[in-house]
Design goal:
Elements lengths: L9 E4 L8 H10 L4 E2 L3 E2 H10 L24 H6 L3 H6 L8 E6 L3 H14 L4 E6 L4 H5 L5 H4 L1 H14 L4 E8 L5 H12 L3 E8 L11 H9 L6 E5 L5 H8 L4 E4 L19 H23 L1 H14 L6 H8 L5 H9 L2
Parallel strand pairs: 1-9, 2-4, 3-4, 4-5, 5-6, 6-7, 7-8, 8-9
Helix pairs in contact: 1-12, 2-5, 5-8, 8-9, 9-10, 12-13, 12-15
Length: 344
């Protein structure tokens, strides 16, 4: 089943650099997310490799016992060299994460096309997403991310190029506009005409960054204007609980949640808010330990060290938060984390 056939509501874990790695994605899926997305991945970096290897076609081996859609499934020796590249590492995912979308950023239509075709042929994810919403200074300074919302013609050309290069479901993650909220009402239909299967729209404009309240009115309005279309519209911005999901989804096909999941993958769990405080704590401790084991299994000791920021977030607002913060920053393995959890 294609991910665009998921029944309403689609519950998407929105990508966040440094947070939504494989371990965290698995945790969120176990709590109820039914669609995942990789962190931002450079289309230029993949295209650079793919353009060198165009004459050497690599095919993914089908092996039901293989856990990863990565170099272990790809026989070509050149790709095995590419696996050492940080960009490749960001693309790795486990079969249990399906359906998962690979998100690309860049600005050159040809490079997007090369990257998308390579990803489909070698990794077989559930879809490709084009980032047209990231407001980070480094990204914007390179004319990537949300700048494709400013330069709509280029944004449309990128979509057309990717649509021609891949048969995978294609989405665009973007914002209401560069300067005003109404831009999406013009840009959205252009992207749909160019071939997207879904739009994931954050309820702020570029200059807002992540400040102020998100505004969903034009996201709902766009959906109402394309009711006859099969294109999915997913809203994003300021959801902080499962109740918030139900309140926000409205006429949309689903919601995407990013920052609201940090320390709280339970946001996808419809039963979590109804649990007693003791049951919530027990589930949290069990989930944290599983998260730690996954992080170590996938990344080794580095994964546990990277997990520290998650550990601090899990107990934000807890009565022992200050004490736990000191203990969690000194953890370097699963046993260390287990010892701290036993004290809570």
């Amino acid at each position: 089943m294609k991910w665009i056939e998921i029944k309403k509501p689609i519950l998407l874990l929105s990508p966040m650099a440094g947070y939504t790695d494989s371990a965290f994605r698995i945790i969120c899926k176990e709590q109820g997310a039914n669609l995942l997305m990789t962190e931002l991945i450079s289309a230029d970096a993949i295209a650079h490799f793919a353009s060198k290897k165009q004459d050497t076609k690599s095919k993914t081996q089908t092996n039901s016992n293989t856990e990863f859609r990565n170099s272990k499934q790809i026989s070509n020796s050149n790709i095995q060299k590419f696996q050492k590249n940080p960009t490749f590492k960001l693309m790795e995912f486990q079969k249990v994460e399906m359906p998962i979308i690979v998100q690309l950023f860049g600005k050159d239509p040809e490079k997007f096309a090369l990257a998308s075709a390579w990803i489909e042929e070698n990794l077989h994810p559930a879809g490709i997403d084009i980032n047209m919403g990231c407001p980070a200074k480094k990204v914007v300074g390179s004319d990537h991310g949300v700048t494709l919302l400013r330069d709509q013609n280029r944004g449309v050309e990128v979509v057309k190029a990717v649509r021609e290069a891949t048969s995978l479901p294609l989405s665009v993650k973007t914002r209401l506009g560069w300067e005003n909220d109404d831009e999406i009402l013009e840009f959205g239909p252009k992207l749909i005409e160019a071939g997207v299967d879904a739009l994931i729209i954050h309820g702020r404009i570029y200059k807002d960054g992540f400040s102020g309240k998100s505004r969903w009115e034009n996201i709902y309005l766009l959906k109402s204007k394309i009711q006859s279309s099969n294109v999915k519209i997913i809203g994003n911005g300021d959801i902080k609980s499962f109740r918030g999901i139900k309140e926000k989804v409205g006429n949309l096909d689903g919601v995407a949640i990013g920052r609201g999941t940090i320390g709280n993958p339970f946001i996808f769990n419809s039963k979590f808010d109804r649990l007693s405080e003791n049951r919530k704590l027990e589930l949290k401790k069990k989930t944290i330990l599983e998260h730690a084991k996954l992080a170590f299994e996938i990344k080794g000791e580095r994964g546990v060290i990277e997990l520290r920021k998650h550990l601090l977030a899990y107990f934000k607002g807890h009565s022992q938060a200050k004490k736990l913060r000191k203990e969690f920053v000194d953890t370097s393995n699963v046993l260390d984390i287990k010892k701290v959890l036993k004290k809570i």
